[in-house]
Amino acid sequence: MFSPDANQENAKFEETKRAVVSVLLDHVIPFENWGKGSAKTLEHLVQEVLAGETTLEEGPAGELVRQVAVACVDVYYHDPSGGSWKLREEKQVFKDGRVRRRALAESIAEKLKAGEIPDQDLVTRALEEELGIEGEVPSVAKGAHEVTQDSPSYPGLKMKLVQHRFETELSEAQYRPEGYVEHQADKDNYFVWERVEADK
């Protein structure tokens, strides 16, 4: 069935993809190797640009830099017996069978969209989208940190990352001892609990 909206979305994607490829070629970024091992694909980057989650800008030395801001949320649960637990990402399983494991310090990390403010509403969105937890979960802001490094998702591309840190604690009703799974079009993200000291 013909869908004008789908046609427009495809055209916008292809237009953005051409622009992204052009700037990658201009800066000699080896994107032909993306989509292998733990690296994301060119199409992933295009989707990030389209969603306003990533911008590509030149750094002070003329190098291409992927600029990203994320909400890093540490998710805790304290059980009735006094045990303390922290959620962590166990793995990402891509639809093509690749498995990606990341040693992330935070429980979940959600990219900010263009114009989005790092506040309670963002934490609520992150918990709902990544863990399926609905409703507001009170959080505490822990400040922001900025780092420039090689992009692990896109080898050969520099990344300027601004991390807005938060902590939150789930209620007994929100706690799932088996963990959580986030289903995305290209992959599934698995989150599990690990025991921590009571003072976090």
Average predicted confidence as pLDDT: 92
Cα(first) to Cα(last) distance is 54 Å
User: What's the CATH H-level superfamily name?
Assistant: Nucleoside Triphosphate Pyrophosphohydrolase
CATH topology: Nucleoside Triphosphate Pyrophosphohydrolase
Strand percentage, roughly? 35-45%
What series of H and E elements makes up the topology? HHEEEEEHEEEE
How would you portray this structure in words?
This protein is an alpha+beta fold and 200 residues long. The protein has a single domain, classed as Nucleoside Triphosphate Pyrophosphohydrolase, CATH 3.90.79.10. Helix content is 22%, strand content 37%. It is built from 3 helices and 9 strands, in the order ααβββββαββββ. Strands 1, 2, 3, 4, 5, 6, 7, 8 and 9 form a 9-stranded mixed sheet that branches. The model has no long low-confidence stretch (mean pLDDT 92).
Essential attributes:
alpha+beta, 22% helix, 9-stranded mixed β-sheet, globular, 200 residues, Nucleoside Triphosphate Pyrophosphohydrolase, 9 strands
Topology:
Layout: H1 4-26, H2 42-50, E1 55-58, E2 64-78, E3 84-94, E4 99-100, E5 108-111, H3 120-131, E6 139-150, E7 158-169, E8 180-183, E9 187-196
Parallel strand pairs: 2-7
Antiparallel strand pairs: 1-2, 2-3, 2-5, 3-4, 3-9, 6-7, 8-9
Helix pairs in contact: 1-2
